[in-house]
Structure formats: structure tokens, C-alpha cells
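Batch job 17 of 40 flagged for manual review because the log was empty.
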Amino acid sequence: MYRYERPPSPGQTPDPTPLPGPRRLAVRMPVVEPRVTYALLGVIVLIYLYFFSRSTPQQIEFLNDWAKVNEQIRDGEYYRLISSMFLHLNLMHLVFNGYALYVIGRDVEGLFGHVRFALIYFLGGLSGALASFVFTDAPSVGASGAIFAIFGAEMVYFYQHRKLHGEMGRRHLQQLILLMVLNLALGLFATRTDFRIDNAGHIGGLVGGVVLAWFIGPAYNVTHDPTAASGLRVIDENPVQRWALPSVLYAAVLLITLVYAITA
């Protein structure tokens, strides 16, 4: 629900004794069920259960076959940029990423819709994998690049809709920024320890999510609707006809960047 301060209609005489504070009306946001988020969680968990059920040599072989390994990608195994997003090394890795996907994914998919959420998740995750390929020589796995992408998308949403959601939205945006700074700082600190975090993958995913959300994210606005209980309705002024092309262009840029990185 969204609180909206309704201005007086033209010609309406203002109330000579208004109540303290702004007049607000609750308007329902056009959100969807986060089915893609739940499907992704299910696939990630199933893959980890299969991985965990194998013997240690089989686990190593499984990772060698599907992880982001730069040498194998240069030899033409480009699928590793995607498959590595579904792998996790241990239970803590899975729980941390799974919980983040559950919390953030539900919000972003609910507001962005199934298709735009999937585009940001996979293209943003691919951005993270590509950044890891360029800047990190070590093999890597994990959904964190894609999760940073939807994290960035949520920050963009609340920045672009800071007037729509008012003080609540501004507080939520500040919390998101603080949490993002803490996560990036943790990644930088971890480089000085034995616990390795793929910072390039995180930052690449974050940048990809921010860019995608800025151009393909929803642009909600409030309009008058006499059929609604509140007299107001929230509509998305960024239809698919407008955001489809930026999605294709972004995917093309990723492809060109991958070709250049491999052949350079």
C-alpha cells in the first residue's frame, strides 16, 4: 500500500479547520507474486543437494565442469558464466545467498514483474561473471553477482520513486545504501584474510543491476480513477515497448565485451 497526499480539487474550498499533518490515502501497488524468485531458490537448493550428495572427488569434478574457470571459458565453454551462478561451495554460502535472494528477490520481482526481474537477475549476474572473468583469475561460483544486481535494482527503484513512497521510501533507500556499503567493505576486508570473496563479481553485478533498472525498471505514477475505492490508481508509465530495446542493447554490449575480453 502507498500513502498519497491528495491535493484539493479545482474550485474546492479548503477546510478551514484542517487536521494536523498531510491528508493521505492508501493506494495499492500493482505487484505480482514472486514466482521466478521461488523457482530460482528451488533450482539452487536442488543443485546444492546434488553436489552435497557426491563424494569429495565427484564434488571437485562437478565444480571443475561447471564453475567459472577462465582458461576453460577462453577455450569456448561460455556456459560457465551462467552455470557458475547456480553453484555454492558449502551450506553457509548457500544459506547466505539464498536468504538474500528470498528477501530482495521477492520485493524486486513484486515491483518489477516477472520478465524484468529475470532480465536483471540473469543479465546482471552475467555482468558480474564477466567482471570476474576480466579481473579475477581464480575460479569462482555463487549467485552473489546476480543478487547484487537485484540489490542495485531495488536501490534504483526507491531512488526514482522517492516522492511516491515518501519518508518510508527514503528511509528504506538509506538502509539499502548502508547495507550495500557494509557488504562491499566486507568483501574488501576479506581479501586480507583466508576467506576469499569475488569482489569483481559483486561490483560487476551491482553495476549491471543499477544500469538495467534505470532504463527498464517501472515508472509508477498516480492517476485519478473513479472506479477505484480511493479514487486513485498506480500505473506503470514504462511499458514493454519502451524497455525491450534497452534490454537487447545491454545484452549485445555484454556479448561484445565478452568477445573482446577473450580475444584481447
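Reviewer: the log was empty due to a logging misconfiguration, but the result itself is present. The chain has ten helices and four strands. Unflagging and moving on to job 18.
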